[in-house]
Design goal:
Elements: E1 2-5, E2 8-13, E3 26-27, H1 39-51, E4 62-67, E5 75-82, H2 85-89, E6 99-104, H3 105-110, H4 116-129
Parallel strand pairs: 1-5
Antiparallel strand pairs: 1-2, 2-3, 2-6, 4-5
């Protein structure tokens, strides 16, 4: 999920271990469904688990399904939700990742250490937003 405040994205540096996808790259909030969760329920739960942010469903302003880059014939959902400066102050990194950072959108898009397909999805969102 892309969470942003003004022109800043909520990002985190993935753990640097060989047994995960995209080790040591800058990522956005991840989504991994549990049980019979809907994609949006999963995204909101993961937001709470990974960053200690409780966002209401009404905060999601855009969503789109994309083919998974990791699992053939699987769909991944990309959600977009703004966050507030007060919420940023309360962020606590969960059990995954080395650190979190609010990062300018342009910086993330230019970073070679950012996950390539997420850059494309951000650009897709930005092109629809204009």
């Amino acid at each position: 999920m892309l969470s942003f405040c003004e022109d800043q994205l909520l990002t985190y540096l993935r753990d640097d271990v060989a047994n995960i996808p995209y080790p040591a790259l800058w990522d956005l909030l991840g989504v991994g469904a549990e049980g019979d969760e809907t994609p949006v329920e999963c995204a909101l739960r993961e937001t709470k688990e990974e960053f200690a942010l409780t966002l209401p469903l009404s905060r999601i302003i855009w969503s789109r399904a994309y083919p998974s880059m990791l699992i053939e014939d699987t769909i991944n959902w990309f959600f977009v939700a703004p966050i507030t400066a007060k919420e940023i102050e309360s962020i606590e990194l969960g059990e995954e990742g080395q650190q979190w950072r609010m990062m300018p959108i342009t910086t993330y898009l230019d970073r070679p250490e950012a996950i390539p397909h997420l850059k494309a999805q951000i650009r897709d969102f930005l092109s629809k937003k204009i």
